[in-house]
Amino acid sequence: MVTISDIAAALGVTPSTVSRALSGSPRVKEETRLAVEQMAAEMGYERNIVASNLRKGKSDIVGVIVPRIHREFFSNVIGGAESILNAAGYSVLICQTHEEFDAEVKALRTMRNNQVAGVLMSHAIGAMDGTHVLDTLGDSIPLVQFDRVFSSLPGAKVVSNNFQGAYEATKHLVSQGYRRIGTLAGYMNSEAYAARLDGYRKALEDNGLPVDETIVFYDTIVRETGFEGGLKALEAGCDALYCAGDFCALGAIEAVRSKGLRIPEDFGIVGTANESFTALMTPTISSLALNPFEMGRQSALAFLSGEGETVVVPMELKVRDSSNRNRQLNLTHICPK
Amino acid sequence: MVTISDIAAALGVTPSTVSRALSGSPRVKEETRLAVEQMAAEMGYERNIVASNLRKGKSDIVGVIVPRIHREFFSNVIGGAESILNAAGYSVLICQTHEEFDAEVKALRTMRNNQVAGVLMSHAIGAMDGTHVLDTLGDSIPLVQFDRVFSSLPGAKVVSNNFQGAYEATKHLVSQGYRRIGTLAGYMNSEAYAARLDGYRKALEDNGLPVDETIVFYDTIVRETGFEGGLKALEAGCDALYCAGDFCALGAIEAVRSKGLRIPEDFGIVGTANESFTALMTPTISSLALNPFEMGRQSALAFLSGEGETVVVPMELKVRDSSNRNRQLNLTHICPK
DNA sequence: TTGTAAGCGTTATCAT
DNA sequence: ATGATAACGCTTACAA
Questions:
Q1: A59-159 CATH pick, 3.40.50.300, 3.40.50.2300, 3.40.50.720, 3.30.70.100
Q2: pLDDT per residue over A137-174, tens digit each?
Q3: Span A2-14, mean pLDDT?
Q4: Staple B199 to which of A24, B43, B98, B167, CB 3.0 to 4.6 Å?
Q5: The pLDDT of residue B334 is above 60
Q6: Fold classified for A162-290+314-335
């Protein structure tokens, strides 16, 4: 392993000069810099980042903490963050929390021990407030929260425009002629789901439809609970559902079909998250798309800029067959005639 | 930031003693160790890993290099690796190559500069051989390759049992009564696809069916090429296809339906990779499942054990509707009657 | 413009 | 069982 001292010795200068030359300091003669660079290349020198980091008291590693790395949403966020951070000379250290509070604390410790330059994180369900974050990170490590954020914590936040998105999705259902639109709303301890519910309500109000609490269904948003929610919605006389997740939208579709009703003719469905399967089903499922890659990019940019602002990443409604009464269904490709 | 010197001063001992006590050396009086541990806890001490790593010349970070982190397969591999590595006290540093050779070299440099304890990697399509890996990593950093491996490189390798898996998939099609079984084979510069093709051929031979090169279709394995392959297979009189990917299997299904044929009655399909959408389509698509999480686990275990063996992770055939003539189709949940 | 020297926080090798 | 000291490789005042 060749060090700056080796280069210095070979050139008859001191390590400090080599260090300056290599780090682009203006306090080096052009001639010397060239000689150093050439010798460094020749000897195959590569800066020891660990030593450099120790000395400088900071590193070029950025920590990313997510509930589960293999979840489509989070892996795309990481991809987006990495695309920015890598270009800026940072590397990405990843920890998963598996939605557990203890693991989140451990991950934060790992980040601190490794003296990361900053932390981008989305909280575990198991984390009830943000005090552990402050305790562990202190105020020397910049924090950026995305998606699941605690407003109480300092630093930048990157969130989706859940209110606006759910508003659009609901308005779209109204425009398609559905008149009794319920919602599978999710769980209200998440700010994101609460905002979606608000958007749904506002859209109904703005379009002269009554807001009926008996067709707001609070539950988890998995396929099974979606099926149950779908059945309840039918009993309550709904002709459409805005669903706060795609898997529960899938379940709701199954429920509607199980009663012999047609989608979208008799019943309209819009999901949320734009999971890749929504575009592959038959019928394809309309979905309110999050923009995880962009959220990752924005999180990284917020870290780089050092500003503590809140960035809102817009959601985009993907209109597909499950809510589209006006166009021809795209049934050719997979369903039996 | 409290250091071991602070603890030493507070206790009236030297930093060396504190270091020994904290790192579990036997050369410390039990009494002293207790005092040190208590004081450390009291003062909120946390070891500076960067300094420790510099001194020890190694780190507790393991690098993982993948083509694209947000691809389902790779993010699951990472998840599997992380589950083992975290438990063993390592953290995971991630780099993507986006399938480009230059990015792979850069990622390897990043790993080396950060003095990672080891590297787990799956090569970019753009990497033609493994010389750059040896050049960059040297022989001081242990290497584990998974999925896309170069046999020429030293170190452990973790691969899927592609031959056996494709053999099972093809045999399954035979057992369902299909008699002219073609294959969408993929591209042959990948050892994995070549092995799948071999398994397909062997299964036909072993079951007394002819191996007909005119129904082996070499192409990329995306939806569009799958559609084309499906049409060609129909023209060639096939009644089934083993597909080396799930997206091309989807395309093939669409092709078969476009000709008014029924699946699985008239035509059988098995895909590969067990992408999540295969279980959500109608009909559900049979698929030869890779086991990415297990591959990640095995890669991490191979790194920890330090042995250079090749681990073969078995694939598992998931029989679903698209190849199952014997059972009732599961059509209730989504398709129009 | 370059050299000198100190130090980042830890650990390892001595010696005591 | 503990202490003194040096060193890991780099950066940065400060001095020349």
A1: 3.40.50.2300
A2: 888 899 999 999 998 999 999 999 999 999 999 999 99
A3: 95
A4: B167
A5: no
A6: Rossmann fold (3.40.50)
How far B108 CA lies from chain A's nearest CA (Å)? Answer: 12
d(CA B98, CA B104): 8
Dist CA B251 CA B228 (whole Å): 8
Give residue B167's identity as a one-letter amino acid code: Y
Contact between residue A328 and residue A274 where contact means Cβ atoms under 8 Å apart: no
pLDDT at position B40 = 95
Cβ contact, residue pair A109, B257, below 8 Å: no
Q: Which of B1, B4, B50, B266 to mutate to test the interface with A (most CBs of A within 10 A)?
A: B50
State the Cα–Cα distance between residues B261 and B266, nearest whole angstrom.
Answer: 6
Q: Cβ contact (<8 Å) for A114 and B250?
A: no
Residues B298-310: what's their mean pLDDT? 95
Q: B208 touching A, CB under 8 A?
A: no
Q: How far is CA A109 from CA A131, A138, B44, B47, B48, in A?
A: 14, 11, 12, 10, 11
Average pLDDT over residues B51-73: 92
Distance of alpha carbon B240 from alpha carbon A243, whole angstroms? 38
Within 13 Å, how many C-alpha atoms sit on residue B169's CB side? 42
Q: In chain A, where does the domain assigned CATH 3.40.50.2300 lie?
A: 59-159, 162-290+314-335
B149 touches B161 (CB < 8 A) = no
* Strands A216-217, B240-243: pairing kind: unpaired
Q: Do B267 and B236 touch, CB atoms closer than 8 A?
A: no
